[in-house]
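Schema walkthrough. Field components (list of strings):
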Amino acid sequence: MSIVKEFTKGLWKEIPPFRLVLGLCPTLAVTKTASDGMGMGAAVIFVLVLSNVIISLVRKIIPKKVRIACFIVIAASLVVSVELLMQAYAYPLYQSLGIFVPLIVVNCIILGRAEAFAAKNPVLLSAADGLGMGLGFTLSLTFLGALREIFGYGKLFGAEVFGPAFKPFTFMIEAPGAFVCLGLILAAMNYLAIWQSKRAGLPEPDVAVSCGGCRACAIGESKQIIQEG
Amino acid sequence: MILQSLLVMLGLGLACSAVLAVASKLLAVEEDPRVEAVLEALPGANCGGCGFAGCESYAAAAVNDPNVPADRCCAGGADTAAKVAALTGKAAGSAEPMVAFRRCAKTEGNVKKLYDYQGVPSCAAAKQLGSPDACAYSCIGLGDCMRACPFDAMYMAHGMVHVNRDKCTACGNCVRTCPNGIMEIVPQAARVMVLCSSQDKGKAVTDVCDAGCISCMKCVKECPAKCVKLEGGVIRIDHAACIAYGPECQEVCAEKCPRSILRRLGATAQAAPQEKQEEAA
Amino acid sequence: MDYFLMLISAIFVNNILLAQYLGNCPFLGCSKEKGVAFGMGAAVIFVAVMATAFTWIMQKWVLEPYGLGYLQTLVFILVIAALVQFVEMFLKKMVPPLYKALGIFLPLITTNCAVLGIAILVQRKEFGLGMSLYYSFVASLGFTLALMLMAGIRERLIIARLPKSLQGTSIGLVMAGLMSLTFFAFKGMIG
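Field assembly_structure (string):
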């Protein structure tokens, strides 16, 4: 049953990047259209699940001091494979994602889940965690992409949504729109979390702060330590 | 193809690790191993609660400076204090427990207002325009110190800030933050305290405040242990000497103060009949 | 003239952060105080230029001659990680004041899309070594500028009365969006 729990937590409770603030760069960059968002999400699922599985398999052999370097190498190899697969089977997607395909390797989600979960848990759980997080990421990206595409182009997955009288809200497609949209969605998620905890009578949760604490750097490490008390 | 990529990656990996291994030997920095050990014992949160810039500063100070107590780390608690004490050869909890104290007895109505401040809700901002109270040394009451406290030990009530003695760790953030400098770190066992930071004398004080110290020097004369002094325009008490002298004097300074500025604190406060309010700290 | 145009373009028109979305994590994490922001920006400039140099050399002397272009990502990230590790050790020993100022940011920069992004960008733009170094320098300058501006804004935001759900990252992102919008005005400067 705990496999199901690990899987579902990535779908809502700790959905990246809306609740667990990791991986903002691709979120902002590739969500011009919903299909781009979905494509990036698919690539991330591939890399995340496989990297979680591999790291979980070798977690007992890797010495502590070089673990970050090892995680990076494993993730990078998987990203190279994904790049090549995309170039072969989904070239238009590869072109529209541009520089962000190789940048999946430094996506904080990959390193963050590796460090926080896969390095300490058995293979099946890590795979479930990776799949859950990856699916959550894909859902978020598709949602944001859909939002930006609907208002920015008037289309959804390439199909016209509004009639010909629609004047596209170009702000949404450009960089400012991405930042503002994501900021407002995060605010909405915070509001939802606060409302839910008020209803349940629990203390107010912390608002989403930048950096989900993946511990790859000093900021993340100190966050983890403060949380663990 | 596969062989080529494998060879290149292997070669790169070996080259990088060789360079790093050599560098870690050649570029090794001599450090007192105790500093490293203390740093390991600290939680590494870099919260600043100890009063130092970060865990590394505190570790260095704890090892090298004999005056720095071993129990300043509050994020780590008693366990960390014990570990640090063991590593530095100091006794944990050897320092006198201290708390922050607000040297101002302002309540609603006893200090005249110079103007009604409607601006950025920050004491530092209000001070830029000149304090909104007629007394330039009062507690402005906009809560900069409260927000600076990393331990949530301060709260606002009746227009001024109060310190929760149980949570206060005497880290000193509030002292540094207050633009009027009215916060002071005193021992928890302090018996008397001056509730005024005004550097004015006599009529200048009574004109603007009902609860201000007029520097009449009665307390200075009365104290048998000579631990009450006028320094920098304000009355200061040498708490170590006061506590060492003992309760024999029955806080005669507080008895004789004509305006009840000098007040008894803590356990002795219950005995004194003139205490109407809970003392402000 | 080319160099000046590139300076304007990299800092204002195509700001690496506000227009190309690279480097958001340190942007939101280190922009709460001006001092920290400047330290982070300086560290990024320092690492980005060196990383570009080394990765460019790796690409031109090792990857391309042997037809191993597909290993670019893997090789680049390894080189950057090793480089940052080495620089940290070097600074700690040789230039302790600089280590005290920049040291804590260095591990953050290793896994940061700004540096890897710049290294890959100069390859895609097919710059020579000199131009690559110059581009990485000015692009990081643009990053530092954005970071300093954000720090200035966020220092004011601390005492603003915001609704609880907007505090923290949300308002930071909205502010970044508005900053990005103002930088749009520079698009008309060139051409």
